[in-house]
Specification:
By secondary structure, this protein is an all-alpha fold. The chain has helices at residues 2-5, 9-26, 28-43, 50-98, 102-107, 110-128, 131-151, 153-200, 202-207, 211-223, 226-262.
Length: 268
C-alpha cells in the first residue's frame, strides 16, 4: 500500500495519526461509565451532584462528536488513498504486462491475465480502505493490556502468554488456508479464461449452434473450485471458532487468576 501511495504518502501518515487519536477518544467510554457508576454508587443521585451527573452524561455525545471529527476525516483520506493505490497498482501491472515479449503472451491466456490483475488490484484496494480496522484492533489490544498491567501485572503477563498461544493456533489454520485460497484463485483464473474465450468468439459459437456445448464446458470449469471452496470455508470457520473460544477461555483464566490472587487479602 505504502509503495503505491506515491506522492500521497504524507496524507497516509496523517490519516493514520487521526485514527490513533480517534482510537484513544473511543477508549474513553469505559472510563466515563466507570466514573458515572462510581459517583452514583458512592453518593447516590441528589440535588448536590445532579448537575455533575448530567455533565458526565453529556460526555457521551461529546465523545461521539470528537471521535467523528477525527475518524470521519481520516476515513475520507483513507478511501481517497485506496483509490490512488488501486489506480497506481493497476497501471503498474498493465505496464509490466505490455512490456513482456510476444512469446509470453502466446503462452498465457488474456482472460487469465486480466483476472489476476483485477483480483490483485481489488485485494489491495480492499486492504487500503480498511487499514483503520487493523489499527483499531491493535489500539484496543494495547490499551487493554495497558489497563491490565496497571491493575495487576501478573495477570497481564499471563494474558500475554495466552495471547501468544492463541496467535500460534491461528497461524496453524492460516498455513492451511493460504494454499487453499491460492488454489481457488487459480481455478477462478481458469474460469475467467474460459469465459473470455466463449464471449470473444460468441458470434462463431452462435453460428455453429454450439451454445449448449460451450455452456456445459464453461459450467464444468465454474464448478471445479467448489470442493476446495467448501474446504476453505470449514477451515476458516474452525479458525474463528478457535479464536472466539480461546478469547473467552483467556477471560476466564485471567479473572480466575485475579480472584484467586486477591481473595486472601479480602480485596475482592
Amino acid at each position: 500500500m505504502w509503495r503505491y501511495s506515491g506522492s500521497n504518502r504524507p496524507k497516509v501518515v496523517l490519516y493514520l495519526l487521526l485514527f490513533v487519536v480517534a482510537g484513544f477518544v473511543a477508549a474513553a467510554d469505559p472510563l466515563i461509565v466507570g466514573v458515572l457508576f462510581n459517583t452514583i454508587q458512592s453518593e447516590g443521585v441528589n440535588v448536590t451532584n445532579f448537575t455533575y451527573i448530567l455533565l458526565l452524561l453529556l460526555l457521551f455525545p461529546a465523545r461521539s462528536l470528537v471521535f467523528w471529527a477525527f475518524h470521519g476525516v481520516a476515513r475520507v483520506l483513507e478511501n481517497t488513498n485506496a483509490f490512488i493505490v488501486r489506480a497506481n497498482y493497476r497501471k503498474f501491472l498493465l505496464k509490466g504486462v505490455m512490456a513482456l515479449p510476444i512469446e509470453w503472451h502466446t503462452d498465457h491466456h488474456s482472460g487469465d491475465t486480466i483476472d489476476k490483475i483485477e483480483k490483485g488490484t481489488d485485494a489491495l484496494f480492499d486492504f487500503s480502505e480498511s487499514t483503520f480496522v487493523v489499527l483499531k484492533e491493535f489500539l484496543t489490544l494495547i490499551i487493554s493490556f495497558g489497563a491490565l498491567f496497571y491493575f495487576d501485572y501478573k495477570a497481564a503477563l499471563l494474558a500475554v502468554a495466552l495471547l501468544v498461544v492463541a496467535i500460534t493456533a491461528l497461524l496453524v489454520f492460516d498455513r492451511k488456508l493460504i494454499p487453499g485460497y491460492v488454489a481457488v484463485n487459480r481455478f477462478e483464473n481458469q474460469v475467467s479464461a474460459k469465459v473470455f474465450d466463449s464471449l470473444s468468439n460468441v458470434v462463431t459459437v452462435i453460428i455453429l449452434r454450439i451454445e449448449k456445448l460451450v455452456l456445459k464446458s464453461v459450467s464444468e470449469y465454474i464448478e471445479k473450485p467448489f470442493n476446495q471452496f467448501v474446504r476453505n470455508s470449514k477451515i476458516n470457520e474452525s479458525k474463528w471458532f478457535t479464536s472466539s473460544f480461546l478469547g473467552r477461555f483467556t477471560v476466564m483464566i485471567i479473572l480466575g487468576f485475579y480472584l484467586y490472587s486477591h481473595i486472601g487479602e479480602g480485596t475482592v
